[in-house]
């Protein structure tokens, strides 16, 4: 079976993990943790990085530090992996779901702007201006754009909208290490960006995340909160409710080795994307995700639309090509059915009903890519 997306562990991973074990530094205090977060921050062009157990908890901490409370709303795209919404719910806040753009599958900025201009009002409280939803009366504190599949939307426009409406940007960049809009790396457009190093990501620590920010104080607070909010190295004194969210050294060691090989893996991904696009263009009724010319994506997981999605999915999985459907839109999940969903044509539903992801591991070989393409072509031949 050609796997969908597996890690490529062919650098110094074993050497660094062995070093942790040999020295006994396997837990959250250890030099690889600092090294890993610095490498990620530096790569992204952010000033600070804080390593945590996974991307989900990174999104949780970023919201807490943005001041999101149970009385607030957070804006999120309706197409995302569940973790984005779960992280909103951990804060007690209420998500508002925005439908996605039919071409690039990122949050629809026309809908976002219409919604903010027609359904919200601004109010000043103690010298600061906030945006409030007209119907619920709740403050809209933050927005979490998700760089779906490593692609990016118009971040220049999004930044302008957020400035106008006083929204903190927390980028869910979990899938987008290596993705760039103009000359700026994903994760660096707002207050925080969060990367994931989950097993299926472009590089992996097994499980892991890094929060990036340019704000020193926020970075220190993120480190504090993720380490049980302990104030003293010696005494067990804690100054607030903290979390045991810090990444451990043995996983950060894998991360350091993965960061060393990342440039090569990213290049392989971009070549894979170009190959799939060239070979699958015009095959059956395949439609690709559109990439804005200002975006250089990391090509994380190759996903396309076809009216034969379910049949193709079965065919590929039966014929040695591991493939998966796309995420069910958030507004269709039982626990989010009652949330406000801003949409005019329910694009999310169409994407969900037609999209399929095909093998895209960072180390995928050209031979494997050729097999994937020929199996897809065979399928469409059987369709007449
Ligand atoms: C869009 C999105 N958000 C959040 C996450 C959560 O990251 P993690 O699995 O590291 O918690 C993921 C990936 O798993 C994701 O794809």
From TrEMBL:
The reaction(s) this protein catalyses: GDP-alpha-D-perosamine + 2-oxoglutarate = GDP-4-dehydro-alpha-D-rhamnose + L-glutamate
Pfam families per UniProt: DegT_DnrJ_EryC1 (PF01041)
Top-level lineage group: Bacteria
Cofactor(s) this protein cannot do without: pyridoxal 5'-phosphate
Catalytic class of the enzyme: transferase
Organism: Lishizhenia tianjinensis
Positions annotated as active site in the UniProt record: 201 (proton acceptor)
Keywords: Aminotransferase, Pyridoxal phosphate, Transferase
Name the UniProt record assigns to this protein: GDP-perosamine synthase
């Amino acid at each position: 079976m050609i796997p969908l997306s597996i890690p490529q562990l062919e650098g110094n991973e074993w050497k660094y993990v062995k070093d942790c074990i040999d020295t006994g530094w396997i837990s959250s205090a250890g030099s690889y943790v600092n090294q890993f977060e610095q490498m990620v921050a530096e790569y992204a062009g952010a000033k600070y990085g804080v390593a945590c157990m996974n991307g989900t908890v990174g999104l949780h901490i970023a919201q807490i530090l943005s001041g999101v409370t149970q009385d607030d709303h957070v804006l999120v795209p309706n197409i995302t992996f569940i973790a984005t919404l779960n992280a909103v719910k951990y804060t007690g806040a209420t998500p508002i779901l925005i439908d996605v753009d039919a071409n690039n599958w990122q949050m629809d900025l026309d809908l976002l702007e219409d919604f903010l201009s027609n359904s919200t009002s601004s109010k000043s409280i103690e010298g600061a201006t906030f945006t409030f939803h007209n119907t619920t009366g709740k403050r809209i504190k933050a927005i979490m754009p998700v760089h779906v599949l490593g692609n990016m939307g118009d971040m220049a426009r999004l930044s302008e909208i957020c400035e106008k409406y006083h929204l903190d940007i927390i980028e869910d960049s979990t899938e987008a290490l290596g993705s760039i809009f103009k000359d700026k790396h994903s994760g660096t457009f707002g207050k925080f960006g969060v990367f994931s190093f989950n097993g299926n990501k472009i590089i992996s620590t097994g499980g892991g995340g890094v929060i990036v920010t340019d704000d020193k104080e926020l970075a220190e607070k993120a480190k504090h909160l993720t380490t049980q909010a302990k104030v003293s190295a010696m005494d067990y004194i804690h100054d607030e409710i903290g979390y045991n969210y810090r990444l451990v050294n043995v996983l950060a060691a894998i991360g350091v080795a993965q960061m060393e090989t990342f440039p090569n893996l990213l290049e392989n991904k971009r070549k894979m994307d170009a190959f799939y696009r060239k070979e699958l263009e015009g095959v059956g009724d395949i439609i690709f995700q559109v990439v804005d010319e200002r975006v250089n994506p990391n090509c994380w997981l190759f996903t396309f639309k076809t009216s034969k999605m379910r049949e193709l999915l079965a065919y590929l999985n039966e014929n040695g090509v591991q493939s998966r459907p796309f995420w069910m839109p958030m507004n269709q999940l039982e626990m989010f059915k009652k949330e406000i969903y801003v949409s005019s044509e329910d694009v999310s539903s169409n994407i969900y009903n037609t999209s399929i992801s095909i093998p895209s591991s960072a180390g995928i070989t050209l031979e494997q890519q050729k097999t994937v393409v020929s199996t897809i072509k065979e399928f469409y031949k059987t369709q007449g």
